[in-house]
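Homework help thread (please don't just give me the answer)

Our assignment gives two proteins as sequence + structure token strings and asks us to describe the second one. The first is just a warm-up. Here they are:
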Amino acid sequence: MSSEVEETLKRIQSHKGVKGVLIMNSEGLPIRSSLSPEDTENYAALVSQLAFKASGVVRTLDDTDELAFLRIRSKKHEIMIAPDKDYVLVVIQNPHEN
């Protein structure tokens, strides 16, 4: 990965409350992760399915629109998903550590 990408990942990871960063390709395969191998596999499989479904919902509601960002917050975690044409960026954080 380019040094610019590495610096961006380090900057994201350094924010208070961030538990992990995951980058997947458009097929949901992990490319880079700061999570454990088990968590990487779980998040990649589940989040890629969720992003695909959410993208489909957005396109169904308006075929000229596309999913830009998805944020899910539970009592324990917040998962932020930024899909792109070739990659999906996922950031997992503890929302109570802000």
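The one we have to describe:
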Amino acid sequence: NALVKIEPQVGNLTSLQTLEVDLDKITQPPMEVNVQGCAAMVRYLAQIHAALKTLHLHVPSLGLVAFPPELIHTMAHPCLQAAKLISVSLTCNKLETIPACMSALTSVQRLALSR
């Protein structure tokens, strides 16, 4: 298959133990998550999916080098839930920059980026 993206809703498959995909072609979740295996991918997707419902993003310790791309794309549309996030926690990752699109998160009250 020509699969390049796994939607956050796949994170609902909490019993999933094996996910057979060509990791070199998958861009979402990011490669740094994918190389950690199925459990990390499902955890990441579950957190992204939950954030769109709860407005609290908590994705610690997954080796992320950039802000979750799934949220960057949805922030381009202010009416979508990602633009309404209240808290963002990306602690213990490897972020080097905070993207300009973060300025769209005008509802954020807590931003945690510590190592």
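TA reply:
I won't write it for you, but here's a hint about the kind of observation we're looking for: The helical segments are 31-34, 38-54, 69-75.
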